Amino acid sequence: MAQHRAPSKHAGTWIVITVLLAAALIGTLWVPFYNHLTPVLGGFPFFYWYQLMWVPVVAILAGVAYLLSRLAQRGNGANGQSLDKDRREVS
Amino acid sequence: MSGDAVALTIVIIMFVVVTLVGFAAARWRQAEDRLHLNEWGLGGRGFGIFITWFLLGGDIYTAYTFIAVPALVYGVGALGFFAVPYTIVVFPIVFVFAPRLWSVSRVHGYITPADFVRGRYGSHGLALAVAVTGILATMPYIALQLVGIQAVLTVLGVHGDWPLIIAFAVLAGYTFVSGLRAPALIAFIKDILIYVMIIVAIVYIPERLGGWSHIFSVAGTHLAQTNPKTGKPFGSLTVGPTAVWAYSSLALGSALALFMYPHAVTGVLASRRRYAIRFNTAILPAYTLMLGFVALLGYMALAAPGVPQAVKANGANAQLAVPFLFQKMFPPWFAGIAYSAIVIGALVPAAIMSIAAANLFTRNIYKEYFNPDATPAQETRVAQTVSLLVKLGALIFVLALSKTFSINLQLLGGIWILQTFPAIVIGLYTRWFHRWALLAGWAVAMIYGTLTAYSTPAPGVPGSHFGGSTANVPVFNHTVYIALTALVINLVVAAVLTGVFRLAKLSAGVDETLPGHYHADPPGLRRPRVPITRLTVGSPDPDPDSRPPVRHGR
């Protein structure tokens, strides 16, 4: 992800975030994972409860990714300085 | 008084209340100018986490959710459920790119996606293409809202086009007078009604119908019947082997497209702080969960005694499935409330979308090409007029296109708007693509997408046009959402021409952004309320006052 301020000591954090978010994409977009009726849960065929289950899961994944991104940004004080310099140049 | 009369009376009362609120909104927090893009449209760019949630969620809850998605589930089964993965994957995507767009827009005072494209590529032509696409793609999306209102009216026994035209004229009236403040105020009523309606529907209806497993089993039996038009089953409870790619490409294509729409970009840029956007991707899925259950109203309609018969008797219009379901299941007074939720849930987004499109026109076309020295009053008048024209355009879409599945209206908009993805989202990361190559890729993809959609017949109606949103891709030999195929063509053309244009040493234009601008996180701006006109100054050397001040240091 290009979100980090390279070179960042938080590259690892951003890799974790990428993996978390990519999991949500693959888990919901790869139809063969869930394109069947069984096992049934609470009257819902698998196809339906699997996808509905992903909704809270993606919320949790995004929540963790959010916390990690805040940590990574907070730890990047030094880079923040250089950003301010960028901004001054255009002002 | 018959049940329908009670329900209709409630809908009319709610409509009148909403209309009064809409006109009264003109006086709400009245400031210097009538059309306050910055006060509400970007909320002075001062919205916190909660209001951002509310705004972005509102972009998901429209007639698309209540009418179009359940109609598709009712008509073809599992394929219609693609709206769930769509509204799941949209959040990781937003998590990644939206903060960059927010930052660079904050630094440079961009309000529309076209503003960013012009600043990034120094290209007026590319910015114009993005603006025109935004306006065009919004129209079928608004048209979908109209179809939703029409479905409710039909079930209530109100026939003909005139009630729809009256409803729209009233909407146009208070949008014209009150600007964005009207839908902002009405949105509170809308959300309360919608939450009440959905929670009651997903608890009460399955109870009356004998539980979820009964609903799924009856729906499965219905879907397995042969469709006399096509000679094949209507659908099934899982995605058929030929539709697997259609399912995931519709989900991914729609997710990539959603935040290219002008009204959705507005919601992102209105956030006060950068982190509020990412935090929201963790709480917005609450809307998705609701959407998932609303989609299943399509199956409840199949399982509810009398509903499939009523739909069939009305020209087999699947859009009527949910309104008929409410009619048969709810007592009339609550049906009236549920109908009001659908109608108001369609009016609010229609207003927001038409205003976003009007702002795009005023800022990126009128001011840019027709009247660079426009006075504030002129700009406001142009925006008001264009908001009317956009709604008229939507009416044309409603009258002209196949309504077998109104979701195709939204998907048609997606085909167009997704073609601005390379210029906007890829532009947030790299300037590798040449501006004219992007323009050429966009043009080729727009033509391809439109022609392919035009030549797609409605199922069982050979020779009809704009009847579907998926088409077979030669060579690959799978059915895929046309928007994604067009996007691939778009990227290939842009990549090849970038190479050519570089060899030819064509000017790449001036980039007014710097790498740091994409991470900038100035603290919340408490700006004085300024009329829209201060923000619409968008010439290459903007009035310094029109830029939001960037605070230094932290």
What's the layout of helices and strands?
The complex is a heterodimer of chains A (91) and B (554).
Chain A: H1 11-29, H2 46-74, H3 77-90
Helix pairs in contact in A: 1-2
Chain B: H1 3-24, H2 37-41, H3 49-60, H4 63-76, H5 83-108, H6 113-121, H7 124-155, H8 162-178, H9 181-209, H10 212-224, H11 244-258, H12 262-269, H13 274-283, H14 285-295, H15 297-303, H16 307-313, H17 321-329, H18 332-370, H19 376-400, H20 407-417, H21 421-429, H22 435-454, E1 470-473, E2 478-481, H23 482-503, H24 532-536
Antiparallel strand pairs in B: 1-2
Helix pairs in contact in B: 1-8, 1-9, 1-18, 3-12, 3-13, 4-7, 4-15, 5-11, 5-13, 5-14, 6-7, 6-21, 7-18, 7-19, 7-20, 8-19, 9-18, 10-15, 11-20, 15-17, 16-17, 17-18, 18-19, 20-23, 22-23
Would you write up a description of this structure?
The complex is a heterodimer of chains A (91) and B (554). Chain A is an all-alpha fold. Chain A has one domain (11-77). Chain A has helices at 11-29, 46-74, 77-90. In chain A, helix 1 (11-29) runs antiparallel to helix 2 (46-74). The longest helix of chain A is centred in the middle third of the chain and has 29 residues, at 46-74. Chain A starts with 10 loop residues before the first helix and ends with a helix. Chain B is an all-alpha fold and 554 residues long. Chain B has a single domain, classed as Sodium/glucose cotransporter (Up-down Bundle), CATH 1.20.1730.10. Chain B has helices at 3-24, 37-41, 49-60, 63-76, 83-108, 113-121, 124-155, 162-178, 181-209, 212-224, 244-258, 262-269, 274-283, 285-295, 297-303, 307-313, 321-329, 332-370, 376-400, 407-417, 421-429, 435-454, 482-503, 532-536, and strands spanning 470-473, 478-481. Chain B has a two-stranded antiparallel sheet. In chain B, strand 1 and strand 2 form a beta hairpin. Chain B is globular, with a radius of gyration of 23 Å. At the A-B interface, helix 1, helix 2 and helix 3 of A face helix 5, helix 10, helix 11, helix 13 and helix 14 of B.
